[in-house]
Design a protein that fits this description.
The complex is a heterodimer of chains A (167) and B (111). With 167 residues, chain A is mostly helical. Chain A folds into 2 domains: 3-129, NADH-ubiquinone/plastoquinone oxidoreductase chain 6, subunit NuoJ (Four Helix Bundle (Hemerythrin (Met), subunit A)), CATH 1.20.120; 130-167. Chain A is 75% helix and 0% strand. Chain A has 6 helices and no strands. Chain A has helices at residues 3-24, 28-48, 52-76, 89-112, 131-141, 143-164. Chain B is 76% helix and 0% strand. The longest helix of chain B has 32 residues, at 67-98. Chain B has 111 residues and is an all-alpha fold. The chains are: A mainly alpha (167), B mainly alpha (111). Chains A and B meet through helix 1, helix 2, helix 3, helix 4 and helix 5 of A and helix 1, helix 2 and helix 3 of B. Chain B: Keywords: Cell membrane, Membrane, NAD, Quinone, Translocase, Transmembrane, Transmembrane helix, Transport. Chain B: Pfam families: Oxidored_q2 (PF00420). Chain B: This is NADH-quinone oxidoreductase subunit K. Chain B: It comes from Sediminibacterium sp. KACHI17.
Chain lengths: 167, 111
């Protein structure tokens, strides 16, 4: 077993375990911290796939900015205690069963699909994830969506301020 | 690394996100599960981009095939950041009005 395989399985186990802990923790602050662990594991996967730019952006944007925003909101509303009333046990069972059915159906589909047989994801090599190549493609082929996304950010900012301000 | 491993991992994360959306009642946790699903899709896009790049490298050594997948991930992150800011503003406004983030209070449009 090579070192990349060991890293892959370790990061996968960490991601799945942390994702389950996001669900089962009663305290929302603990959920946020476990979700940050998931993002760190996914960033590790990106580094393993040699997508360095996305790994750093994932850490900065998701683990750094978005989750801090979640923490701010949770602490602003003083929700950092186990205050959530329990949903009925049948509702939880139904949710878990439907999610498990989705997982089972898609898993068996992937296992039988001929398109994926023998295909490998390039691990550790390949230079398309580097900032130089990504930036070149971004500002050559995708410059219009890039500019439109700035308009999206502006409208999101205005929308958040309008929704959030006291009337 | 076989591509199936990445698909299974992404499927597991996505299913956990679905179960969280269906079973939790706290609006913020539901929102966090949506972020989890977005990240599962991002991971799958990067894995597929590397798979495509690997097959294209066999014929052309200087190809940049598969770079679109990683740029899509970048744009998904951009849209997710905008979505989170608006969504959290909506949750804050909801908390200000009904003093709770329980989504079962929102099952009717009246009042």
């Amino acid at each position: 077993m090579s070192i990349t395989q060991i890293m892959f399985f370790f990061l996968s186990a960490l991601a799945v375990f942390s994702a389950i802990m996001v669900l089962v923790s009663r305290n929302p602050v603990h959920s946020v911290l476990w979700l940050i662990a998931v993002f760190f594991a996914i960033s590790g996967h990106y580094i393993l796939l040699n997508a360095q730019f996305l790994a750093i952006v994932n850490l900065i944007v998701y683990a750094g900015a978005i989750m801090v925003l979640f923490l701010f909101v949770i602490m602003l509303m003083n929700l950092n205690k186990e205050s959530e009333p329990n949903k009925h046990i049948w509702m939880k069972m139904a949710g878990a069963i439907s999610g498990g059915c989705f997982l089972m159906v898609m898993g068996s589909l992937v296992r039988q699909a001929a398109d994926f047989q023998g295909k490998e994801a390039l691990v550790g090599t390949g230079d398309i994830g580097l900032i130089k190549n990504l930036g070149r493609a971004l500002f050559n082929n995708y410059v219009v969506p890039f500019e439109i996304s700035s308009v999206l950010f502006l409208s999101a900012m205005v929308g958040a301020v309008v929704i959030g301000k006291k009337e | 690394m076989p591509i199936q491993y990445y698909i299974y991992l992404s499927l597991a994360l996505f299913s956990i996100g679905i179960i969280g959306v269906l079973t939790r009642r706290n609006a913020i946790i539901v929102f966090m599960c949506i972020e989890l699903m977005l990240n599962a899709v991002n991971l799958l896009l990067v894995a597929f981009s590397k798979m495509h790049h690997g097959t294209a490298l066999a014929t052309d050594a200087a190809t940049t095939a598969g770079i679109d997948g990683q740029l899509f991930v970048f744009f998904i992150m951009v849209v997710a950041a905008a979505e989170v800011s608006v969504g959290l503003a909506i949750i804050v406004m909801m908390y200000r009005n009904i003093h709770s983030v329980d989504i079962n209070f929102l099952n009717r449009l009246k009042n």
